[in-house]
Design brief:
It contains 13 helices and 16 strands. It is about 30% helix and about 25% strand. The chain is of the alpha+beta class and about 450 residues long. It is elongated. Helix 4 crosses helix 7. An eight-stranded mixed sheet has the order 6-10-11-16-15-14-13-12, with helices on both faces. The protein has a five-stranded mixed barrel with strand order 1-2-3-5-4. The structure holds 4-amino-1,4-dioxobutan-2-aminium adenosine-5'-monophosphate and magnesium ion. The site of 4-amino-1,4-dioxobutan-2-aminium adenosine-5'-monophosphate (4AD) has 23 residues, from strand 11, strand 15, strand 16 and helix 13.
Length: about 450
């Protein structure tokens, strides 16, 4: 007989039919006549109740039905008399698939802290919370492809190993096959990378943008969706060393088109989650963050406030509140500043544009004032910066000048510069931090809790 999932069994279907279920025991309660076993197989947040009349089963076997064990159940799907569920399974046969020693299984019924669950990330999928988070993670990944596919964007696979530093920030992980105990050296003592696998220094990508631009400048609209790596030593609830980024890049888009796309895209994904992840979101709202649904609705209900960085600095300076980090024109904004603007001042998501060139990457289009660039950061409640993007500098000479002042090696990026030489056009793009978006959609307050196996400084277990 074909196995049914819990999702199928709890969905519409004929009562009284014979069913076959496999899953993990979440809890077991009862008395000396009957056992109520909650079985979950991860297909939905809910478990299904299996009712076993003890005298119908060998005692030694029933003893092995413990929290964490895996079982297969044959029985009948019946209407449930108990509270909280419409149907349950009346068990005729129970097979133990895998034992779980109750003295050793770390997930007990009591609530565990997220910190503790991070230490057992291999098992935390089996909790309601992480089941919900990772189902939502899947649904949103799917929605991203749907969104762009429906709008004629092409999914472009940009390299994970690259020789360039796309952000010019130097926070990269080196990729090498050199023997670190016997590093080949040139006469002047420096490392001889010609002996390395690629014959040159390479690293894990910090962003697919530069290659994305090459694609957009032929295919019109592309997007990337892949892992990116940053060797910044920041231990915050919003930073990880390995995260997933979505980077659309569009020819013939200026910064306003770019902002329109970013806003529409974010709202689409949030709406998609609300429509397709109802049960999981209801659970997270109830158990993790009572304000979650309101925050999701809040973003959908408002058009994003669009202001310049300069205006934001003035607002922050006039705020009757002290910030930990200084507020001064020319300095980058911190999460506390971003959240103040969104949560206290404008009370809606904010898009800030036209940042000082000195705190933004080399490729951003230069404004005529000679000081600012056509950057756009989207700021969200709870999160702060969720998207960073810009219109790109399409003028070869201006781009080269800025690369020169910022010490970006133009000879290594000859291929990037050639797009400005041959048929250059206005274009724009942005990067959405996928894991930060998931924090927002799930209400989880630490990025480590929306990534199956997070990578942070001094931590690469699993
Ligand atoms: O602002 P960033 O650095 O922009 C870029 O990488 C551009 N190349 C994007 C583009 O224009 N195509 O990063 C974009 C987003 C941030 O807004 C943030 O959401 C996320 O990526 N992000 C991180 N998420 C988790 N951990 C980190 N260490 C992150 N660094 C950036
Ligand atoms: Mg940024």
């Amino acid at each position: 007989m074909k196995r049914s999932t819990v999702k199928e069994l709890l969905g519409p279907g004929e009562i009284g039919r014979a069913v076959y279920l496999k899953g993990w025991v979440r809890t077991r309660r009862g008395n000396n006549q009957v056992a109520f076993i909650a079985v979950n197989d991860g297909t939905v947040i809910h478990s299904i109740q299996v009712v076993a009349v003890l005298k119908a089963f060998p005692e030694a076997q029933m003893k092995r039905v413990t929290t964490g064990s895996s079982i297969a159940v044959r029985g009948k799907l019946v209407e449930s008399l108990g509270k909280g569920q419409r149907v349950e399974i009346q068990a005729d046969e129970i097979e133990i698939l895998g034992d779980s020693d109750p003295g050793q299984y770390p997930l007990q019924k009591k609530g565990h802290s997220f910190e503790f669950l991070r230490e057992i990330a291999h098992l935390r999928f089996r909790t309601n919370t992480f089941g919900a988070v990772f189902r939502i993670r899947h649904v949103i990944s799917f929605a991203i492809h749907q969104y762009f596919h429906d709008r004629g964007f092409f999914y472009l696979h940009t390299p994970v190993i690259t020789a360039s530093d796309a952000e010019g920030a130097g926070a990269m992980f080196r990729v090498t096959t050199l023997d670190l105990n016997q590093i080949p050296r040139k006469e002047d003592g420096s490392v001889d990378f010609s002996a390395d696998f690629f014959g040159r220094p390479t690293n894990l990508t910090v962003s697919g943008q530069l290659e994305g631009e090459l694609g957009a400048l032929a295919l019109s609209s592309i997007y990337t969706f892949g892992p990116t790596f940053r060797a910044e030593n920041s231990n915050t609830p919003r930073h990880v060393a390995e995260f997933w980024m979505i980077e659309p890049e569009m020819a013939f888009y200026d910064i306003h088109d770019n902002m329109d796309l970013a806003e529409d895209f974010l709202k689409y994904l949030i709406r998609y989650a609300m429509e397709h992840c109802r049960d999981d979101l209801a659970f997270l709202t109830e158990m993790i963050d009572k304000g979650l649904m309101d925050r999701l609705n809040f973003v959908l209900a408002h058009s994003f406030e669009r202001r310049t960085y300069t205006e934001a600095i003035r607002i922050l300076q006039e705020a009757d509140r002290k910030f930990e980090f200084p507020v001064e024109w020319g300095l980058d904004l911190q999460a506390e500043h971003e959240r103040y603007l969104v949560e206290q001042h404008f009370k809606k998501p904010v898009i800030l544009t036209d940042y000082p060139g000195e705190i933004k990457a080399f490729y951003m289009k230069q404004n005529d004032d000679g000081k600012t660039v056509r950057a756009m950061d989207v700021l969200f409640p709870m999160i702060g910066e969720i998207i960073g993007g810009s219109q790109r500098e399409e003028n070869l000479e201006k781009l080269q000048n800025r690369m020169h002042t910022m010490n970006i090696p133009g000879d290594e990026l000859w291929w990037y510069l050639e797009t400005r030489k041959f048929g250059t056009v206005e274009h724009s793009g942005f990067g959405l931090g996928f894991d930060r978006l998931l924090m927002f959609i799930t209400g989880m307050s630490n990025i480590r809790d929306v990534i199956p196996f997070p990578r942070t400084p001094k931590s690469a277990e699993f």
